[in-house]
Design a protein that fits this description.
Blueprint lengths: L2 E9 L2 E6 L2 E2 L6 H16 L5 E6 L5 E6 L6 E5 L1
Parallel strand pairs: 1-6
Antiparallel strand pairs: 1-2, 2-3, 4-5
Length: 79
């Protein structure tokens, strides 16, 4: 199972949560960023519908894949 780690960090004069190299929008307090990260992590654990997705990788190449709705990661909030 894939493990996704959410981390609360200082960002842009406030606080944000980070997953890998991706940052959320800034929040005014650590507590607000923590609550947003906890909510996002919880939502990511729940199964959804199997659906097609498209995304662009770091080199600018577009990909099309089928995302299995029941294949959910283990999420961790680390701050």
């Amino acid at each position: 199972m894939t493990k996704v780690i959410y981390e609360v960090v200082e960002h842009d004069g406030g606080w944000a949560y980070k997953v890998g190299d991706v940052l959320s929008e800034p929040f005014p307090s650590h507590a607000a960023a923590h609550a947003a990260a906890a909510a996002a992590a919880e939502r990511q654990r729940h199964a959804g519908a199997t659906d097609g997705i498209e995304y662009e990788d770091a080199s600018g190449k577009w990909h099309r894949e089928v995302a299995e709705g029941g294949d959910r990661p283990d999420t961790v909030l680390d701050d």
